[in-house]
Specification:
The complex is a heterodimer of chains A (about 210) and B (about 200).
Chain A (H helix, E strand, L loop, with lengths): L7 E6 L4 E12 L6 E12 L4 E11 L2 H5 L4 H27 L3 H10 L3 H5 L4 H32 L4 H17 L5 E3 L1 H9 L2 H8 L1
Parallel strand pairs in A: 1-5
Antiparallel strand pairs in A: 1-2, 2-3, 3-4
Helix pairs in contact in A: 2-3, 2-5, 2-6, 5-6, 6-8
Chain B lengths: L7 E6 L4 E11 L7 E11 L2 E11 L2 H4 L5 H27 L3 H11 L2 H6 L3 H32 L4 H17 L5 E3 L1 H5 L3 H5 L5
Parallel strand pairs in B: 1-5
Antiparallel strand pairs in B: 1-2, 2-3, 3-4
Helix pairs in contact in B: 2-5, 2-6, 5-6
The chains are: A alpha+beta (about 210), B alpha+beta (about 200).
Chain lengths: ~210, ~200
């Protein structure tokens, strides 16, 4: 029986002061009549300047696929649980990257669709709609906190071109979210390189 | 200078065991936009045990703007803010009971500026609004589940019709400023919905 997946872990180093670690894990939830599963995301923010570490978690998806696959093969079920954990971490980083790129519409769509929000609107059960909104907001809170820390860090170090630099690192973060091999992304050289460019050059690069 | 407005409250008696109390109050909070916010507290009393859930309805500085007219006017404005929050709670609960899921979702996302955040470049507005909407949705869901369970248990064959009827009645209860208590028990004891809808004289 698969009880949980391995921990999928990815780290983003924003500056010498700020490091963001995202962990994902699929868990089996044992109920009386039947079992279900969920993937949880844990966000660990390490701020050296403030000497602070923030740890928060939220449900990233409700997924029963590993339990269903268990009937065929436990190995396949384990693999599927690991994939669910990887996908949850990748999805979180992708949503954060959309926030940094100020693609608010795409980010909201991804967040709200995460818990099957749109299809539930046409099923007349308000519990589903309200639960989906609650879960989306809890996951959104984790993104908001990471976004706020990155935004403050860049706005303090590069006040005049913060928005452009955010867009550049947002793009790099999106590439990192799709990459399943790379485990750590160091944004320091990217930010240093971007800060040397003029606003015109940055705008051309973004376009 | 006053730090809190008056508390306004309404009660919903779901059954002999369960009672819901909704309280709203405007508070002075210097760090929030508009220097004030209206909070709603849902108290669930069940067999003597009490559980409380909180959510923020709106940021507002209206009581401050009325301060130059006098303290009495400012307090009255704070009461209006609290009454608005209370009415909206009953409105969202009635939407859920009437299964108007699209309006339930749209009105909530509209009020907490999630749609506005989607159209602006500011990710903060969107995520902040979504978080507040989620907290509000949690409050509505808790109240809805207690009422839904009671209706489903008492009226297993016609629960959908009764749910809709109760939803309409809760909206009327919200409109009535004098009414403080809504009792679900006599509604669920009726033989059929017709007995409630059609006047007895007919």
């Amino acid at each position: 029986m698969v009880l949980h997946s391995r921990v999928a872990k990815r780290t983003v180093i924003v500056s010498d002061n700020l490091e963001i670690e995202v962990r994902g894990r699929w868990h089996r939830i044992r109920e009386k009549d039947y079992d279900t599963g969920e993937t949880r995301i844990t966000l660990i923010l390490r701020h050296k300047g403030l000497r602070k570490q923030i740890t928060m978690s939220a449900i990233a998806s409700i997924d029963e696929a590993p339990i269903l696959l268990e009937r065929h093969s436990v190995e396949v079920a384990k693999e599927d649980a690991d994939m669910a954990a990887d996908a949850a971490v990748g999805m979180f980083l992708l949503m954060l990257s959309l926030g940094l790129q100020h693609r608010t519409g795409d980010m909201a769509k991804l967040l709200l669709e995460r818990f099957d929000y749109e299809s539930k609107l046409f099923r007349p059960d308000p519990r589903d709609v309200l639960s989906a909104l609650e879960l989306s907001s809890q996951l959104g809170r984790l993104i908001r906190i990471s976004y706020a820390y990155i935004h403050c860090d860049i706005a303090l170090s590069h006040p005049k071109r913060a928005e452009e630099i955010e867009t550049v690192i947002g793009r790099r973060l999106a590439e990192f979210s799709w990459d399943r091999v790379e485990k750590t992304l160091d944004l320091r050289p990217i930010i240093a390189q971007a800060s040397k460019k003029t606003l015109k050059e940055l705008a051309r690069e973004i376009a | 200078m006053f730090a809190k407005g008056p508390v306004v409250r309404k009660r919903i008696i779901v059954s002999n065991e369960v009672e819901l109390e909704v309280r709203a109050r405007w508070h002075f909070i210097p760090v929030t936009p508009g220097n004030g916010a209206t909070k709603v507290i849902l108290s669930v009393k069940r067999n003597g045990e009490v559980a409380e859930f909180r959510a923020l309805w709106a940021f507002s500085d209206a009581p401050f703007q009325k301060k130059h007219l006098g303290l009495k006017e400012a307090i009255e404005e704070a009461r209006n803010e609290a009454n608005w929050a209370l009415w909206e709670f009953c409105y969202f609960l009635s939407l859920a009971l009437q299964r108007k899921t699209l309006s339930l979702q749209d009105d909530m996302l509209m009020h907490f500026r999630v749609y506005r955040g989607m159209q602006s470049k500011d990710s903060w507005t969107l995520l902040d609004g979504l978080e507040l909407a989620g907290e509000w949705a949690k409050l509505i869901k808790i109240a809805y589940i207690y009422i839904y369970s009671e209706i489903a248990a008492r009226r297993p064959t016609d629960s959908d019709d009764f749910e809709k009827f109760v939803g309409e009645q809760i909206l009327r209860f919200a409109d009535d400023k004098e009414a403080e208590v809504f009792d679900l028990r006599p509604i669920l004891q009726a033989k059929s919905l017709a007995e409630l809808v059609v006047p007895q004289s007919l």
